Fold this sequence. Notes:
Layout: E1 2-6, H1 18-29, E2 33-36, H2 47-57, E3 62-65, E4 68-69, H3 75-89, E5 93-98, H4 116-131, E6 153-155, H5 160-169, E7 172-174, H6 180-196, E8 204-211, H7 216-226, H8 232-240, H9 245-257, E9 262-267, H10 273-282
Parallel strand pairs: 1-2, 1-9, 2-3, 3-5, 4-5, 5-6, 6-7, 7-8, 8-9
Amino acid sequence: xxxxxxxxxxxxxxxxxxxxxxxxxxxxxxxxxxxxxxxxxxxxxxxxxxxxxxxxxxxxxxxxxxxxxxxxxxxxxxxxxxxxxxxxxxxxxxxxxxxxxxxxxxxxxxxxxxxxxxxxxxxxxxxxxxxxxxxxxxxxxxxxxxxxxxxxxxxxxxxxxxxxxxxxxxxxxxxxxxxxxxxxxxxxxxxxxxxxxxxxxxxxxxxxxxxxxxxxxxxxxxxxxxxxxxxxxxxxxxxxxxxxxxxxxxxxxxxxxxxxxxxxxxxxxxxxxxxxxxxxxxx
Length: 283
């Protein structure tokens, strides 16, 4: 199992200048990837910006969004943004996307929460066309440079249509920041949906878990703030945050036992020291 580390782009009032330094430290420490979380209506750094900063600050480490709220974007604009990030990184980006749920994240007129599943189906066709160099905007000019690749897609999913979409379009599935026992159910659905779609091999399975080592109390407060209004699920996430090397190693073992392909350990604070503290604990 590969072990990656999240960027702190969605820590409340994150210091934006930390993000490229965090990515460079993660690459130096030997993590497989740096990841982002996606939310718009929050005092944070946009995931596309964080990924672009990480792409410019690193040379070899993977980049992954876990997950990006794709349906909050006009499809052609997001496809161009993503193609640029992937190109700058030299083809290191894996795009994890989901339909989103919070009403306040849908800020663009005409791109609201209603109908987002159907919209995503159309968006995926647009991504493929844009990345394939087809013209956009009704003209005869493409939006991306020649040689742009089809960026690999992973999907967050909770409903049968979403899992079916993952199996049709994606390389795999990303579980939410939930205990391993809950993620296991999502992995099972992903595998069965993959088989139902007659896909070869197995879906690539990614899990996400939170940690804070330098200041666990600040980490718990940050997670409680970020997931406010989510009721019992918020408490589950806050209490599930790892705050010691021992807890982290136990979490890694749990996900390894599930057959997880990559675990992204996401920070609950922007304490830069936590990059090497985490590496010492789990790498």
